[in-house]
Specification:
Blueprint lengths: L3 H16 L6 E4 L5 E4 L1 H8 L3 H11 L6 E6 L3 E6 L1 H12 L13 E5 L14 H16 L3 E5 L8 H12 L1 H9 L3 H14 L1 H16 L2 H25 L18 H10 L4 E3 L2 E4 L14 E4 L7 H14 L5 E5 L5 H14 L7 E5 L4 E2 L16 H18 L6 H21 L7 E2 L2 H4 L7 H16 L17 H10 L2 H10 L3 H21 L9 H22 L9
Parallel strand pairs: 5-6, 5-10, 10-11, 12-13
Antiparallel strand pairs: 1-2, 2-4, 3-4, 7-8, 8-9
């Protein structure tokens, strides 16, 4: 089904093209009509005519019979008011459409790199945004019809693993596994670090263990796998608490690309891109300079012949293009990594590993702040554990439910509290324009009023409660929508705007646009429900309004699911 927006543009475009090929009309929601047709001013300037004159000509050329009425407003805007018949036909089509008007695209392969925790370290608040934004983009791209491949690029290789393996040996495998299996990764890591800094003998053993690890010595690899497997089990628990779709099979850590790093250097060298800089092997992609205006190096291999992040990132990028067949690669990584990723992309282009047909994009995001607008830290000055955040949110949600005198109790209440906590945490993150910082305030996030996840979850449950009051399961039998009142019409227009909201969020990698749409839809429904009786309305009005309720509930549920948020049936 073609969306209302695109159906209108298809009718408007020929009139613009007739005046000037390539002129693009833009439809925007308007307070005085359903849409305002913009682009007239730019078209008039190109033609050297007055905007009002051009608007009048467009008005006579645009054929919208049965779809909308047009009116010139102001200096040259055109107000567009949809006919009830047109809205009605699209509502009826949407009622039978599981995709609610959102079209599925031709298949392309999208690789999304997100979350990226470190082995033997607990996930903290710094991992929240990459994990939540990445999961939402994954769901949105899958819903669009694309083949999506997730990659969790964890830190599971390098010099720290020498001290971690030696610490595991000193503790004994049984005790070490017992400690790691309860998720106490930070204590294990700190103990190893403290011993490394204080004990020269331990330090020497750790360095030798790194050599054994890099050489592929079997016993060392077995011990390393214990650390990795325990950490992956912990990651799985965190993802389950957040309802994030990442699995152990989608983890491709730095170790996966270790055997490819020599070829990265040799292939870059063969392409004439490698330069020696004080013993380090570097690439100097054009356009990158330091503060003094000197060329900025991307260090591929360090002076000690060890490989840095750049070599691993290049190996991963090449793998994603050559083996996975990526058409698009999204890196959901914090804004401070912008220059590094830009240099990696530029180097890959120079080497021919990133052809023009492949889009490579850094999906950057801001920081999570506390109420004083400083970096979110624990009282001890450390990064707050992600599990602690989730557990605190669940406790707050349970308390909020008890204050609401909910009839839900026992395990059902605990499950609902977890769903509300997820909604609070995820929506607060996703409803913020991702490039911006935001304040992590559980009290505000858990609220059932205002622009919050719990409010939207409650809006869905509230609609479902209407259908529970019916004598029998409801089956749609509506033949039309009269839309007699302004709140009904407003709700209908909101329902038909889902495809545009989804498309904008998808193309701009901007989940907040979908959040904005859902909050607006919930507000439209509230205005409708307060002004328009549903169950007490006479037929066929009762059936029409029940259909509007059903469409709203389905739209909220779908939109929330695309954000990774559950829509409870009852709250």
């Amino acid at each position: 089904m073609t969306s209302t927006y695109h159906a209108l543009l298809a009718r408007v475009q020929p009139a613009f093209d007739a005046l000037l090929a390539g002129a693009d009309p833009v439809l925007r929601p308007s307070e005085r009509s359903d849409y305002q047709l913009n682009g007239v001013m730019a078209l008039a300037k190109s033609l050297g005519r007055s905007p009002r004159d051009v608007a009048d000509q467009l008005l006579s050329d645009i054929q919208l019979d049965g779809i909308a009425t047009l009116e010139v407003a102001g200096p040259g805007f055109i107000n567009v008011t949809l006919t009830t018949e047109f809205i009605q036909s699209h509502l009826l089509s949407t009622l039978d459409d599981p995709r609610l008007g959102v079209e599925s695209r031709p298949t392309q392969t999208v690789v999304i790199d997100y979350s990226a925790p470190n082995v033997a370290k607990e996930m903290h608040v710094g991992h929240l945004r990459s994990t939540v934004i990445g999961d939402a983009l994954r769901r949105m791209n899958e819903f669009a019809g694309f083949r999506v491949i997730a990659r969790n690029h964890v830190g599971d290789w390098g010099t720290p693993f020498g001290m971690l393996i030696e610490h595991l040996i000193d503790l004994g495998e049984a005790q070490a596994v017992a400690s790691l299996s309860i998720g106490d990764l930070n204590t294990f890591y700190r103990s190893a670090r403290t011993k490394f800094e204080a004990d020269d003998e331990f330090k020497d053993r750790s360095r030798q263990r790194v050599v054994s690890l890099q050489a592929g010595e079997l016993e060392t690899l077995r011990l390393w796998e214990i650390l990795v497997n325990q950490s992956v089990a912990y990651f799985d628990e965190v993802y389950a608490k957040l309802n994030v779709e990442l699995t152990a099979e989608e983890i491709f850590g730095e170790s996966f690309y270790n055997d490819q790093l020599d070829s990265v250097v040799s292939d870059l060298d063969s392409a004439g891109l490698i330069e020696d800089s004080d013993g380090a092997l570097c690439v100097f992609p054009p356009g990158f300079t330091n503060r003094d205006g000197e060329p900025l190096p991307l260090i591929i291999r360090k002076r000690d012949e060890g490989y840095g992040y750049a070599a691993t990132d290049l190996a991963a990028l090449r793998d994603r293009v050559d083996l996975l067949g990526a058409d698009e690669i999204l890196y959901v990584v914090g804004a401070p990594q912008a220059q590094h990723l830009s240099m990696v992309f530029a180097t890959a282009r120079l080497a021919g590993w990133l052809p023009e047909r492949v889009t490579c994009e850094h999906v950057a995001f801001g920081n999570v702040l506390d109420r004083s607008r400083k970096m979110f830290k624990s009282r001890e000055g450390e990064s707050v554990k992600l599990v602690s955040l989730i557990d605190s949110a669940v406790e707050r949600a349970e308390h909020a439910l008890s204050e609401r005198d909910s009839s839900i109790s026992g395990d059902d209440r605990r499950t609902l509290a977890l769903q509300i906590a997820r909604a609070a945490i995820k929506y607060s993150d996703l409803s913020t324009e991702r490039q911006r910082d935001y304040v992590f305030d559980l009290e505000r996030m858990i609220a059932f009023e205002g622009d919050t996840g719990p409010y939207l979850a409650y809006a869905h449950a509230r609609i479902r409660s209407i259908f529970r009051r019916l004598d029998a399961p409801w089956e749609p039998s509506v033949n039309g929508f009269s839309l007699l009142t302004e709140p009904e019409r407003s709700l209908a227009l909101g329902l038909l705007s889902l495809p545009e909201a989804f498309e904008s969020a998808l193309q701009l990698r901007a989940p907040h646009k979908l959040c904005t749409y859902l909050f607006d839809l919930a507000q439209r429904f509230t205005a409708f429900y307060e002004a328009c009786p549903v169950l007490k309305a006479p037929e066929p009005l009762r059936e029409e309004r029940l259909a509007l309720c059903e469409l709203t509930a389905k739209t909220l549920a779908l939109g929330l699911d695309l954000l990774g948020i559950e829509a409870p049936q009852q709250m």
